[in-house]
Amino acid sequence: MSKQIYVIGHRNPDTDSIASAIAYAELKKKLGYSKVCAAMAGNPNPQTRSILERLGIDPPLYLADVHPKVRDVIKRQPITAAATLSLKEALELFHRHNVRVLPVVSEENTPLGIVTLLRLSEKYLLAGTDRMRGVDTSLRSLAVCLGATFITGESRDEIEHLHLFIGAMREEFFTSRIEGYEPASLLIMTGDRRTIQQAAIQMGVRLLVVTGGREVDGDLQELARRNGVTLLSTPHDTATAASLTRLSTPLTEFVEARFEQVGVAEPLEHLRLKLLHSGEPAVIVLEEDGTVAGVATKSSLLAPLPYALILVDHNELAQAVPGAEAVEILEVIDHHKLGNSPTNQPITFMAAPVGSTCTIVASLYREGGIEPEPRIAALLLAGIVTDTVILKSPTTTRRDRELALWLEERAGLDHAQFGREIFSSCSGFSAYESLEVAIRADFKQFAAGDTLFGVGQVEVVGFDEFYEIRGSLREALKRVKEEERLAMAGLMVTDIYSETTLFLVEGKNELAHVMGYPQIQPHLYELQGVMSRKKQMVPHLLKVLGAL
């Protein structure tokens, strides 16, 4: 069965991240991949939501995490056993389905315990003298296993501890063999031997089983009724009947009431720990309603996950959806610096120094001779113009401009006008629920040696709104820094028309001595001509923080 493939961007997705995921998933479908789906690791920002609404495109599937869950590795059609089954019926289940563990369940399919083939064998075979002769069974279970009919007495479900003796000798030897046993605990099995039958009935044994389908004389039947002896007739020979008698023990006598269990929605790591450290051969997996979903063994940990990832607009696990490190990554399409972890298998890795991941995806459409439908072309164009700030960012390349022109023809849009409409309608802080949400909407973390820092970016049209809320914004930035345990948190407030960034910083006060840009107020720097976090801001901060 082919895996479900999720095309997904980074945790704080911008328009480029979501647009490239949607467009690349559509391209994979056109190339014949049926089980592929666009996904997002965070909620879209106001700009992206506005673009999707304008184009009539649904947001991608939201994945809070992709940590492997128990449900990903179990088969959801477990072989279970009712507590009323006999040992014979249970062994048939073990053999027929080639399993080693049987959950014993109630009528509602909730677990009562487990039976393992190993421990069943130990209890059944490795037993003392009394256990070898003793049989724990009910009259109903015994009759079913023997295919027997009641001549006298009636079927009962109560478990009784009986001592089995075979009447295959002369009557005087037989009576001497059973001396010392309470008659009410004796199960006598014999064939067409009237003397043995009569001695057992006169003694008042609990149960007499006549083998070979032989009839019991009428006077002995009457005597059995008077003495309260149950008579059974089985078609099996004595050897077979004796073996089946020991297999008639109801499964309840072998159930281990204490067992390890785990929920289907729990992380796979929980199952791993239980299997490796509990000493149990299996763990019962439960549905959310408490019914049995399956049985997990150590081999379950080797089962391949039913889904895989294609990463777009990032290649670092620190920015990926939580749990990505435990999932197979099939491809990476990105335009950032390399910070990826090694993979176990060769993968498709496309990284290009262009202004937008959507530029790479658009080029794959064009190179493959595949025409994107107009709304996908418009979405790719939106990714390019927002990530390059309408092709003004220093990250903009000839390839970005070339693909923007190619896409505008297919979308029926002018890229410059389209970009201005996007920024005019969704720029600034008022588009967000709170200032903290605005900071986190496009916030990424980086490391300069041992110094961990983060930088967010918000595009604006003029700085008037920023100056009005500067104090509150700094307090929100301070909270983000503390919550993320960063040495420094910064926010780029970028005016798309003046092509200037105001950089608000919390932490690393000594930065003022090495920043290299004018500090116009405490904690605030003016960076004329700086618009790109990737190509200008972060490389500069890595250099100056390294100097500190």
Features:
single chain, 548 residues, alpha/beta, inorganic pyrophosphatase (n-terminal core), CBS-domain, Udp-n-acetylmuramoylalanyl-d-glutamate--2,6- Diaminopimelate Ligase, Chain: A, domain 1, six-stranded mixed sheet, elongated
Mean pLDDT: 91
CATH class of the largest domain: Alpha Beta
Number of helices: 18
Please identify, by name, the CATH architecture of the largest domain: Alpha-Beta Complex
Radius of gyration: 38 Å
Main sheet overview:
6 strands, parallel
Strand percentage lies at 15-25%
Tell me the helix content: 25-40%
Class by SSE composition: alpha/beta
So what's the oligomer here?
A: single chain
CATH topology of the largest domain, anyone?
inorganic pyrophosphatase (n-terminal core)
Low-confidence parts lasting 5 or more residues at pLDDT below 50? none
What is the overall shape? Answer: elongated
Please provide the count of β strands: 24
User: Quick one: CATH superfamily of the largest domain?
Assistant: inorganic pyrophosphatase (n-terminal core)
